[in-house]
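Continuing the batch. This is chain 6 of the set; chains 1 through 5 are on the previous pages. Same settings as before, nothing changed between runs. Recording input and output for traceability.
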Amino acid sequence: MGSSPNRIVATVFGAVYLLVGLLGFFVTGPIGFIATEGGLLLGVFEVNPLHNIAHLLIGAALLIAGLAGARPAKTVNITVGAAYLLLGVVGFFLVGTPANILALNAPDHFLHLASAIVLLGVGLAAERSPRVATA
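Output for chain 6:
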């Protein structure tokens, strides 16, 4: 995998999000696919089956990109980081509304914002092309 920060972060986050997606199905048995209230994963994070599938897809994208190389990892880190930043902010306004189809709660928003900071931070700062001064 090399020492690329983007590859390491994408691979680790991808594996974690895949695991979270799988574990989520253990707490969402009787819950509707897009229920606005879900089961508690780790006793804190609310999830429903759609939320679990989102974690699986995001985890797969990150893991595949991390294993593919620094450039795809950087692209996916930035893309997922931006999506999580948006979801982290918008999510606060969705709780308690019918639009909360991912069964988000406040701990989810803070976790999404933390993920966004790491993914965007690494994606935007690491593997930058050196600028060559021209005379």
